[in-house]
Write a structure and sequence with these properties.
2 domains, about 30% strand, single chain, Lipocalin
């Protein structure tokens, strides 16, 4: 082989080896730079993604109001309903005092004592007379719902067939027994004198409601 040709071939191989080495070095450097850049980008991205979360958490904590102190709810208490008591000292003659139960309703007319004439119950008591009654209870109390001004209440007792009764607080009921039921120890019928103004007194007759 010609020496010149051999030298040329050797020179070409050496040049090719140098070029290959340079290419390998450049490729390694590029891969290192690429790795660093990727790491920086990943870190930066992580930092960016965590900062808003931290700020939102702090903001949420600041915006929450302080919890109010725990207080016990008051226990609801229902007060018992109190009924008015009737305590009236009624005079007695020293005999046996008794009580009874019964509802007594008025007749359809009353008697004007001063004139001796009958008058309608409606003219005296208005519409309420139709549902009015005298109710006597075994505990010594009574109610009168005949008056249009509302129910009146009081105390009473029976002594020797005579009913003594007083409206609260201290107005005497003028009641006279007409017919007495000795078997049940209470009246069949009676009348009550109602005063309707000066010198205007009326007898209102009552019989037991059946």
């Amino acid at each position: 082989m010609n020496k010149n040709v051999l030298k040329s071939l050797i020179a070409a191989v050496i040049a090719a080896a140098i070029i290959a080495t340079v290419i390998i070095v450049i490729t390694i450097n590029q891969n290192k730079d690429s790795g660093k850049s990727g790491t920086q980008k990943t870190t930066a991205a992580a930092t960016v993604s965590t900062e808003p979360v931290t700020q939102d958490a702090q903001s949420t904590t600041k915006d929450l109001p302080d919890a109010p102190p725990a207080t016990e709810a008051p226990i609801a208490t229902e007060e018992p309903e109190t009924m008015p008591t009737i305590d009236i000292a009624l005079p007695t003659e020293g005999g046996e005092v008794t009580y009874f139960s019964g509802v007594y309703v008025p007749d359809s007319s009353a008697e004007d004592i001063s004139k001796g004439t009958k008058v309608s119950m409606r003219s005296l008591f208005g519409q309420s007379y139709s549902s009015g009654a005298l109710t006597f209870n075994a505990d010594g109390t009574f109610t009168d719902t005949l008056s249009s001004t509302g129910a009146a209440a009081g105390a009473y007792h029976v002594e020797d067939g005579i009913i003594t009764a007083v409206y609260l607080p201290d107005r005497q009921m003028d009641i006279t027994v007409i017919d007495w039921d000795g078997q049940n120890n209470k009246p069949f019928s009676f009348y009550v004198i109602y005063s309707m103004g000066t010198n205007a007194n009326y007898k209102v007759y009552f019989t037991e409601k059946k």
